[in-house]
Amino acid sequence: MKNEKNTADDKNLDAKAEAMKAVNKKASQVEPLLNLNENKAIINTFIEKFIYCEVYYKIILGIYYKHKKKQNIKIKDMKIDLREGKAAIQHCNYCFDNEILDKIFKSKDVNNQHTARILRNDIVHDLKQSSIEDVLKRKDELFECMDIFIDGVKNGTDSTTATDEAAVTAEQ
Fold first, then answer.
1. Rg (CA), the chain
2. How far is CA 46 from the centre of its chain?
3. What percent of the residues of the chain are helix, what percent strand, and what percent coil, each to the nearest 5?
4. Beta bridge partners of 110
5. Are residues 44 and 106 in the same domain?
6. Shared-domain flag, residues 5 and 68
7. Which residue range is the domain that position 122 belongs to?
8. pLDDT digit string (tens) for 135-165?
């Protein structure tokens, strides 16, 4: 019995050593990048903005399900499905440019670039270095899209309204 226990302990130590090696490899890839200047704050802000986008999107989707499909689905049980999401956004009388919605929520690349959703998933679930670098490079574009959506659903100023207001201001 003692030999079986020693064999199991040896296997567990091997597993622990393998896990530590993999964890330290990942840490050596991303920690230096995140510890540079304001990089950690940028990534944290990106994740925070995406969380707002996802929750607000699901609130709108829930209203759509309640009105159109007579279903009450909890936010935690909803999935991002952009086809239904666009219908839900239209149902709630919002008007966002499809490009903005695609850049945030699409599950596939748009114009050979990862969407905010893909980047968030890569960072949260894998600390993927290339996705962290992508967010750092594209933060202005990504933040602008997410801010338009967040502000639009909160204040009723969707992308069409913002464009119209800019045109009126330019005319004056």
1. 22
2. 8
3. 80, 0, 20
4. 113
5. yes
6. no
7. 38-171
8. 999 999 999 999 999 999 999 887 765 445 4
Tens of pLDDT, residues 15-51? 888 999 999 999 999 999 888 889 999 999 999 999 9
pLDDT tens, position by position, 120-134: 999 999 999 999 999
CA angle 35, 37, 40 (to 5 degrees): 50
66 and 117 share one domain: yes
Cα–Cα distance, 114 to 106 (Å, whole number): 9
State how far the Cα of 160 lies from the Cα of 152, in Å rounded to an integer: 10
For residue 47, which phi and psi values (nearest 5 degrees)? -60, -45
pTM equals 0.82
Phi-psi region of 154 (alpha: psi -120 to 50; beta: other; left: phi over 0): alpha
